[in-house]
Amino acid sequence: MTAPLPTSELASSVAGQSFAPVLGSGFRSYYSDALCTIYHADCIDVLPTLAPCDLLLTDPPYGVTYQSNHRVGQGSTPITNDGTRLSLALYRQVLPLVKANHLLWFTRWDAWPDVWAILGQYYPLRGLLVWDKGHNGMGDLNHWGLSYELIASAGGAKLQGARDGSVLRYKPKPSNDRHHPTEKPVGLLAYLMEKVNAKTVCDPFMGSGTTLVAAKQMGRKCVGIETNESYCEIAAKRLAQDVMTLGSQNDQGMP
Ligand SMILES: C[S@@+](CC[C@H](N)C(=O)[O-])C[C@H]1O[C@@H](n2cnc3c(N)ncnc32)[C@H](O)[C@@H]1O
Question: Whose CA is nearest to atom 7 of ligand 1?
Fold first, then answer.
């Protein structure tokens, strides 16, 4: 566990970045800029110290051990806490610690009944969104290909603008060009923040920081938490780069 430090002692691990905890945590931040802060820590330790936010937008460990057959033996490692029972136990620990007006929580078909039950204990359930990836992912080769993921929506946010349908079509990043094996498209995360009008966002399972990259592009404040330091480093580097316009990303909605 990272020891809490007084704000005056906060220091950056990325040269030249100024430090200011965005949503009020007293933990030492790994990276911070005017909009985004990263904590290299277990979210169970950090979440109780954060101020309430508009949106918790997260892609947690799903409860399936993620290791592509293509990468077995090539140094790929399963994602921390990625095992069905471990993940559900983690969700049960995390949800009571969350202070957000709305939750958008990625899940998949074989985990969603449990996710639904767990989220429903704390937030009014609003619906399931479908992220249509447009092509098959991994899974049972004798059954329909898994070309989508689910996003559970729960809480009090009201949709901004048009009443869009719940199937969202965004191309995934090519697997050979990802910062994280389960990286989500920046454009999809930006769209979700925009639709629920979130000015402050938290991602307790940050991975390579895609939620923070989207928040920064949108001018929203965002806190990310990640146990794996190598992903914190990747996320910090992504955030330290000049902000690119959404239109230049290779993850636009499909026609
Ligand atoms: C599915 S990945 C998120 C990937 C992310 N959407 C991206 O685009 O890079 C979930 C991440 O949660 C991290 N994690 C697992 N348990 C955690 C915990 N208790 N606190 C913080 N991070 C955790 C894992 O190391 C993993 O990188």
Answer: 183
